Amino acid sequence: MSIGPKQALLAEFAAVARALGSPKRLEMLEHLAQGERGVEALAKRISLSIANVSQHLQQLKRAGLVASRRDGKFVLYRLTDERVVMLMRALFDVGERNLAEVDRILRSHFAERDSLEPVTREELLERTRGGLVTVLDVRPADEFAAAHLPGAVNIPLVELEARLSELDPRQEIVAYCRGPYCVLSFEAVAALRARGFKVRRLQDGLPEWRAAGLPMEQGAASGA
Amino acid sequence: MSIGPKQALLAEFAAVARALGSPKRLEMLEHLAQGERGVEALAKRISLSIANVSQHLQQLKRAGLVASRRDGKFVLYRLTDERVVMLMRALFDVGERNLAEVDRILRSHFAERDSLEPVTREELLERTRGGLVTVLDVRPADEFAAAHLPGAVNIPLVELEARLSELDPRQEIVAYCRGPYCVLSFEAVAALRARGFKVRRLQDGLPEWRAAGLPMEQGAASGA
DNA sequence: TCTATATTCAAGAACTTTATTGAATGATAT
DNA sequence: ATATCATTCAATAAAGTTCTTGAATATAGA
């Protein structure tokens, strides 16, 4: 008896899941969710050899999670579509709710997590309409330039200490970065709170914002 | 340098993805999505040794995808929550949209698929209110008994040919089974169409209905 | 055409996952 | 207690995955 169409389909879907089944590849996907990246750029960010990154990218491509195009000497990779962001969100969601170990890590490293009460996209949209909030993007400048939330100010986490004066201590700040588990925004909130700022984290990051079809801005300078 | 909290989190999420990365386990999850099952019952349905099924179940459990409870001599497994159904849906969705091979399989085995224009949950809800449709559950009787759509008639696929007289040829029929790729409902639609019935497929199956928080019925006899 | 640069391919060692087998555990009923 | 049945554990061989290394392509510019 040969395998039926159902087993064949499940085998394909399982292959997609397997492509998601490596921490390195998840990290690559999170970076690609910010925008297109070349192989070397990715390799640098996640500290892996170029050949190795290339191989991981082939796997992601075979699984239909990323697509690529050539631009001169470079090959640029990107997520195939927003469905991939949704899939990652669903994966993280299950992990966060059902794995004790995840809970432990979140608690031990992001102690304030519970008290932070993250801001939802809808909430942020309403508040920005009133002009009541500073939206703070703590990702590196190049990622900010590629795309960011409308009116956001960019202060990469590493520069935050040095550029505190750019922030108005009386206005509420909403910080965001790459995604729901991007460490940058957690640390930004911790650092700013310690200095008496009124800060909260955006629940998701830029990719989820984009996947929700909400407007974005491009370019280096903004808001501030 | 030790691994940071981010890598630790991604490692956990990757483990969840890896648990989904086997066709057999996906098949088990689809069955568990219908309701609780014992180890032996599962083993029978997907033709795998009991020991093997048990080991797969341990993996799914470690990944937080299923939970278990003991009932006398039996250990019954179930999905941890509806988030798992959402995750599988997101996975199938990405596969269906982005993998040429999936498209090929769907086309070659379910030629009518495009012409079928599946009925959405919302659409079905509206139509049942008007009493215009026969809702047909083509899953085996025991799965039907565990839970089914309100007012549904149960005719397992294998009995369909013999029980055609139970269906009213003038009324529109909406067939459903275990999930979006459950073969049963595709075949039921094909068989009934060949006999001149007006049939369509429900877009999803029972698990998605449940995950959406819609009402269900239990018990063997119903509707008809 | 030749050279430099970005990426991919190929082969191999270390490690992980899978299916199989048979033994061990845990709960129930005699 | 003992026997019985459902399930899990442990050990193993086969298959698959990961990372590394060095060679092979493909493009751009001289």
Shape of chain A, please?
Answer: globular
Number of helices of chain A: 11
Architecture per CATH nomenclature, i.e. the level-2 architecture of the largest domain in chain A: 3-Layer(aba) Sandwich
Tell me what portion of residues of chain A adopts beta-strand conformation. Answer: 5-15%
CATH class of the largest domain in chain A: Alpha Beta
The mean pLDDT of chain A is: 89
Oligomer: homodimer
Return the domain count of chain A: 2
Class by helix and strand content of chain A? alpha/beta
Question: Helix proportion of residues of chain A, in percent?
Answer: 40-55%
Amino-to-carboxy terminus distance of chain A = 67 Å
What are the segments of chain A in which pLDDT stays under 50 over at least 5 consecutive residues?
none
What is the alpha-carbon Rg of chain A in Å?
19 Å
Q: What is the number of beta strands of chain A?
A: 7
> From N to C, what is the helix and strand string of chain A?
HHEHHEEHHHHEHEEHEH
Adjacency order of strands in the biggest sheet of chain A: 5-4-6-7
Largest interface: A-B, 51 and 51 residues
Give a short account of the largest sheet of chain A. 4 strands, parallel
The CATH superfamily of the largest domain in chain A bears the name Rhodanese-like domain
Give a description of the structure.
2 copies of one chain form a homodimer. Chain A is of the alpha/beta class. Chain A has 2 domains: about 5-85, Winged helix-like DNA-binding domain superfamily/Winged helix DNA-binding domain (Arc Repressor Mutant, subunit A, Orthogonal Bundle), CATH 1.10.10.10; about 110-210, Oxidized Rhodanese, domain 1. Chain A has 11 helices and 7 strands. Chain A has helices at about 5-20, 25-30, 40-45, 50-60, 80-100, 100-110, 115, 120-130, 140-145, 185-195, 205-210, and strands at about 35-40, 65-70, 75-80, 135, 155, 170-175, 200. In chain A, the strands form 2 sheets. The first copy, chain A, has a 4-stranded parallel β-sheet with strand order 5-4-6-7, with helices on both faces. In chain A, β6, α10 (about 185-195) and β7 form a beta-alpha-beta unit. In chain A, α3 (about 40-45) packs across α4. The longest helix of chain A is centred in the middle third of the chain and has 17 residues, at about 80-100. The radius of gyration of chain A is 19 Å and the shape is globular. The termini of chain A are far apart. The model of chain A has no long low-confidence stretch (mean pLDDT about 90). Chains A and B meet through α1, α2, α5 and α6 of A and α1, α2, α5 and α6 of B. Chain B binds a DNA duplex (30 and 30 nucleotides) through α4.
